[in-house]
């Protein structure tokens, strides 16, 4: 076990992260501040975490505070993560959605908490591979995340061999990526459907709010587990408003809606997705 420094006010740092990203950090994981904030310390020309805390307490510095909250996020992701939602979309959910949208010829997806973009690009590859008819449609895949660093990486669409080797069928690598040195870059036809930007899911208003911003499919996976129950409830109420009445919500495999009264769970394809329940 890594020892934390007793002179650091970790409670202050936990509170700071909670205030900005609503991520609840358990005191048993305080050592993460020591490992994750080394770059922030270096950028500030500081050697010790206690100096950073003193500095923050002495003078408000929103930019620095934000970089701390961002550095503490967990960005674990992979292409076609937990494969079943993608398979279910391919075999049943998307054919039905496409049929019901054939007059408007448009589909909107949101990878909320997209991390480095693999979820959004997986969707784009799925559409390209199995639904060529969508080529003439207006299809958008929005990716948002609180961390500017991961959003920048998602926009670049450039991945290391190790990231590529996680979850991508070999044929997809050859077909949808270009080899650049040690890395692979997403080809333009896959990237062009995707748009990434920074957004905090826990700020008073969600990044999309107009009626025409409604989504057909929202992926909100593996992010709510870091939020308190009240935060989850507020977020899912906002997500409910942004989902088309026949839209589909995917949560992470261990996540549940905080307010089950507004969602209908549907078990299919070895996974669970959620439909918004309409007020009667
Ligand atoms: C574990 S990753 C999940 C990525 C992807 N959804 C998946 O399931 O593979 C969680 C992501 O949530 C982001 N995140 C944490 N708190 C957030 C917040 N308040 N608003 C938006 N994104 C947040 C983190 O930056 C991180 O990239």
Q: Could you describe the 3D structure shown?
A:
By secondary structure, the chain is of the alpha/beta class. 40% of the residues lie in helices and 21% in strands. The chain is built from 12 helices and 10 strands. The chain has helices at 10-21, 31-36, 38-43, 49-58, 62-71, 84-100, 118-130, 148-156, 161-164, 170-176, 188-191, 229-242; strands at residues 106-112, 138-145, 158-160, 177-180, 183-186, 194-198, 215-220, 243-251, 263-268, 271-276. The strands form 3 sheets. Strands 6-2-1-7-8 form a 5-stranded parallel β-sheet. A 3-stranded antiparallel β-sheet has the order 3-5-4. Helix 1 (10-21) crosses helix 5 (62-71). 35% of the residues are buried. The model has no long low-confidence stretch (mean pLDDT 93). It binds S-adenosylmethionine (SAM). S-adenosylmethionine (SAM) binds at residues 21-23, 73-77, 81, 113, 115, 119, 145-147, 150, 200-202, 221-223, 252.
In short:
The chain has 280 residues and is an alpha/beta fold. The chain has helices spanning 10-21, 31-36, 38-43, 49-58, 62-71, 84-100, 118-130, 148-156, 161-164, 170-176, 188-191, 229-242, and strands spanning 106-112, 138-145, 158-160, 177-180, 183-186, 194-198, 215-220, 243-251, 263-268, 271-276.
Keywords:
five-stranded parallel sheet; 10 strands; 12 helices; binds S-adenosylmethionine; 280 residues; alpha/beta
The secondary-structure class comes to alpha/beta
Report the radius of gyration as a whole number of Å: 20 Å
* Oligomeric category: single chain
Poorly predicted runs: none
Which compounds are bound in this model? S-adenosylmethionine
Mean pLDDT: 93
């Amino acid at each position: 076990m890594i020892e934390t420094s007793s002179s650091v006010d970790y409670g202050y740092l936990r509170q700071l992260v909670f205030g900005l990203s609503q991520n609840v950090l358990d005191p048993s994981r305080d050592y993460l501040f020591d490992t994750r904030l080394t770059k922030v310390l270096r950028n500030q020309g500081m050697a010790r975490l206690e100096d950073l805390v003193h500095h923050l307490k002495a003078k408000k510095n929103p930019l620095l505070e934000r970089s701390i909250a961002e550095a503490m996020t967990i960005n674990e992701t992979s292409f076609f993560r937990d494969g079943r939602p993608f398979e279910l979309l391919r075999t049943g959910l998307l054919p039905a959605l496409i049929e019901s949208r054939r007059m408007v010829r448009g589909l909107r997806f949101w990878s909320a908490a997209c991390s480095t973009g693999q979820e959004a690009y997986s969707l784009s590859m799925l559409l390209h591979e199995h639904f060529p008819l969508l080529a003439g449609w207006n299809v958008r895949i929005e990716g948002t995340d609180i961390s500017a660093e991961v959003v920048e990486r998602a926009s670049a669409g450039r991945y290391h061999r190790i990231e590529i080797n996680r979850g991508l069928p070999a044929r997809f690598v050859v077909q949808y990526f270009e080899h650049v040195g040690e890395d692979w870059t997403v080809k333009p036809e896959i990237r062009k459907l995707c748009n990434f930007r920074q957004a905090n899911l826990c700020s008073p208003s969600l990044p999309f709010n107009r009626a025409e911003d409604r989504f057909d499919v929202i992926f909100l996976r593996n992010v709510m587990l870091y939020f308190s129950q009240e935060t989850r409830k507020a977020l899912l109420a906002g997500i409910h408003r942004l989902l088309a009445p026949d839209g589909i919500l995917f949560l992470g495999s261990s996540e549940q809606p905080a307010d089950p009264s507004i969602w209908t769970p549907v078990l299919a394809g070895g996974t669970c997705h959620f439909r918004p329940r309409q007020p009667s």
